[in-house]
Amino acid sequence: MAYAPGMRARPGTVPQLVKTLRRTYARKLGEIAAGADDDALRADLEHLAAVIRMFWPGEDFAAIKPIRPRANRRGSKAPVWFLSALDVLREAEEPLTAQEIVRRILRARGEAVEGAVAKSAECSVLAAFRRRGAALGIERVGAQRPFNWMIARR
């Protein structure tokens, strides 16, 4: 395979730019395979192929396997739980544990109050209260676990 003019890679290696373009091409192929087939996606795929050919003229596009798209879950639920927990604390008249807060949120949404979702939500609420609670006026009540939480009355 030939190198584009000005490329400074060792013979037999693929430059990082080409690797990144291949990965992007594979992700676009995966989106098409998953059913998100539209004209803009096909146009993106053609443009990526043209750019790859500019830097790596002998590229075999049939050898690039599609990468299945994955939903980005990182950080997607924590703000929702935290904001809902703030609403529950604003309405509460007494300090509540994180488990009680999550149960009230899930009941309001009509979801099951037990299970993996509830446990994950409880951990998210606790982490958010520890990390950002003081800045928002949320204080921990008591010294023993499970901690109770309330909004500081001013």
Give an overview of the whole structure:
The protein is mainly alpha-helical and 154 residues long. It has two domains: 70 residues, no CATH class; 74 residues, Arc Repressor Mutant, subunit A (Orthogonal Bundle), CATH 1.10.10.10. It contains five helices and three strands. Strands 1-3-2 form a three-stranded antiparallel beta sheet. Helix 1 runs antiparallel to helix 2, helix 3 crosses helix 5 and helix 4 packs across helix 5. The longest helix is centred in the first third of the chain and has 18 residues. The model has no long low-confidence stretch (mean pLDDT 83).
The major pleated sheet works out as: 3 strands, antiparallel
Run of helices and strands: HHHEHHEE
User: What is the gyration radius calculated from CA atoms?
Assistant: 25 Å
Q: How many domains? A: 2
Compute the number of helices.
5
Q: Note the quaternary state here.
A: single chain
Briefly, what CATH class of the largest domain? Answer: Mainly Alpha
Which class best fits the helix and strand makeup?
mainly alpha
CATH topology of the largest domain: Arc Repressor Mutant, subunit A
Taking pLDDT < 50 over at least 5 consecutive residues as the criterion, the unreliable ranges are none
Shape: elongated
In spatial order, strands of the major sheet run: 1-3-2
Strand fraction band? Answer: 5-15%
**CATH architecture group name of the largest domain:** Orthogonal Bundle
Question: CATH homologous superfamily of the largest domain?
Answer: Winged helix-like DNA-binding domain superfamily/Winged helix DNA-binding domain
Portion of residues in helices? 40-55%
Question: What average pLDDT do the residues reach?
Answer: 83
The span between the termini is 71 Å
Q: What is the number of E strands?
A: 3
